Amino acid sequence: MKVCDVIKWENMGDTFIYKFPEEDFNTMSQLIVNESQEAIFFNGGEALDTFGAGRHTLKTQNLPILTKLMTLATDGVSPFHCQIYYINKTEQMAIKWGTDSQIQYTDPEYGFPLSIGVSGEMALKVSNGKKLLMKLVGTANEFNKDNLTTTFRAFLMSKVKPYIARFMVNNKISIFDVDAHIDEFSEDLKKSLDSDFDDYGLELVRFFVTNVVKPESDAQYNKFKELHFRSFADIKEATLEKQVTKIKAEAAADKMVIESAAMAQKRAQEGYTYQQEKSYDVAKEMAKNEATGQYTNMGVGIGMMAGVGGTMAGVMGNALNSAVGGATPPPLPNAVYHIALAGGQTQQQDINTIKNGIANGMITKETLLWKAGMANWAKAAEIPEIMSLFGNNGMTPPPIPTGN
Q: Is 199 helix (H, G, I), strand (E, B) or coil?
């Protein structure tokens, strides 16, 4: 005959509540409760105590020898009935749920009726074991995930189905964009369901909508699906084409700026301006026309170009002479030199300005000059074009040759 019992529960698995199979424990029996458990002691059909983690000694009215004698009159059943229920306090994850029928609603974007389903997972844990035991389990031997899913399916559906339909209509969410809102569904539904689970002593730790089941076999749905994604693709293609056109235009503008800057630098180095270049081009084109019958056309051209300025007038005059009666070429561009000044500074001057500088003594034969095409700076005396501007400078000319 056992004097006392050792009561413990291991291998909890996905069970929320477990009734220990043996009953009517002798007094001084040892109750073992693990960290992730709690135990509820029933005596005479009444929940008396809740035990947390640790080892506990139970005091009952069942005494080993006396109880055996007393049960002789009750066919072996103790009149001092006691039981232990274990509560699993761990978080139970991956509890699947889904709508038992489809949700009917009208797509707000395209206006056609359709049916959808919703499914997902949730995680629960017991927050009040006694409340759960008294409200749902009763005298059952255990209560697991399957029991819970069956028990809560009805009120889950009463919350989930109308919420999904209402949310999609109020926020004008098309069935083709619904997947982007799954996180919102999950968060809002969890808030809505928290109090319902709490009424039964359960904490809804997590609630996820993981899938919206679309009517892929519905011909009307597939027609609008193709229309939706085709229009989306057209918009994306038009947007991309617009971006490419903009990039090309910007590249062309950048190229023009770079080429213009290069041409401006070239003109500066060679000593002429944009206006002079264009005047020369026009004059050269007109000079090609040697027929007398084209004289009137040339006159019209000269009139239209009259506002270009003195340089243009001179060039045009030379071109006219060349075309009508003469073959005089247009004047060469006036060379521009860089003049070295005191303090390391430089200044650009054309031949006429240099000639004046020589006359007033600002430029001497020792002055350094440079222009495009020269390898290095050179003294004025070393540049024939410049040296010719100095004349003889008082030097006696050689004697005139005489005939023999």
A: coil
